Structures are given as structure tokens and as C-alpha cells.
Automatic annotation (TrEMBL):
UniProt-recorded Gene Ontology molecular function terms: DNA binding
Keyword DNA-binding in annotation: yes
Name by which UniProt lists this protein: Arm DNA-binding domain-containing protein
InterPro entries: Arm-DNA-bind_5, Integrase_recombinase_N, SAM-like_dom
Ranges where the Arm DNA-binding domain occurs: 10-96
Gene3D superfamilies listed in its UniProt record: 1.10.150.130
Keywords: DNA-binding
Domain Phage integrase SAM-like: from-to ranges: 109-179
Source species of the chain: Bacteroides fragilis CL05T12C13
Amino acid sequence: MARKSFSVLFFIKKGKLLKNGEAPVCMRITVNGYMVDISIKRSCPVNLWNQAKENSKGKDRMSVELNHYLEITRSRIHQIYRELETSDKVITVDLVRKLYYGVDGESKTLLQVFREHNEQSRKLIGKDFVSKTVQRYETTTRYLEEFIKKEYQLSDIALNNLEANFISKFDAFLKIEKGLCVKLRYHLIEEFEEDYPHCFGKRLDKERSICLLPLQTGRN
């Protein structure tokens, strides 16, 4: 049996500098000639990046923290690949990426929960829900799907892998990409706690409260 090829590479995007002047750091995973680039939400000054070593050559605290994060991330990807080698699953670059984000086909995912809720709500139109409310739920789900695809390059995301700032990022998406006013964004985000309380842990509840505060002020 031919040996499968697998590699992990970190690099910076010099042509897409951030507002702080630093270059975003990306991770390239390659499996059997197929590759995918993933943003790891970290950045590095261009003059400090050492491509040969795939890390920062800086000695300051930020550089040390970045290099530590890169080591942890590389180890995580290799661990995922080793676990797949001992399973009966067909190893693909997309599967490695999904497992890195926590979407393995077994974990509960965000859009899965939203769609299940929407389906139940549709059945209760005229009893517990009005049609307009259900339409708003479906709009929120559609926006979430677009956001997840744009931000994480995924079709869905596991609940246990939601970032602490997920809600504030989604709010920014609604404002910038969808042009929603403060009032509409407030109602959409407020529904997270009221209608999908099991989706978000305590840290996300706190993030939601922080996000809603300026929105609540703006709608008055």
C-alpha cells in the first residue's frame, strides 16, 4: 500500500497586511497532494517572520507567544492525523480541517441546532409561533451559514469549538456585510439566549452580554 503524504506548513500573507501593519499567519495542510489554507487568527511583523523555521525570530513577548501557539497548533494537527491513521476513515484534507475545527460528524453543530429549532417552530405556526417569527429564525440561520463559511471556511461549526468572541464577530458581519441597523442586530443576537440557550456556554453568554450592551444603547 502506498504511503500517504501529509504535511503542515505555516506562512504569512505579505500581500494582505492588517491594519496594524502585520501580516496574517496561515497554516497549510496537505494530504496526498490536496491542500487547504487556514487562517489561524494570528499575525506577525513581516521583518520578524522566518519562513525557514516557520515562526517568528523575535524575542519579545508577542513573538514568544506566537511561536508557542504555532507549536501547539502543529502538534494538534499531527495528533488528528495520527488518530485518523488508526481509524477506518478515509483521510482527506477536508476531514483533517473539520476535525481541527471540531466538526467530526458526531459533535452537535451550531447550524444543526438552529435548523432543528426552525423545523419545530414551523410545525407550531398558529399555536406557539407566528409566521413572521419563524421567518426571522430562518433569516438568522442563513446569515450564520454565510458567516461561518466566510470566517472559518466551513459549512458548519461544532458547538464545543465556538470562540469566545464568536458573537461579536457575527455582529460585525451583520453590520458590515449585511448592512443591518442596530435594532435588527440587537433582536437577532438577543434571540440566541432566548431560543438557543443550549448552544452557548457561560463565556459566550458573557460575550453576548458585552455585545448587546452597545446595541441596546444604540436602539434607544
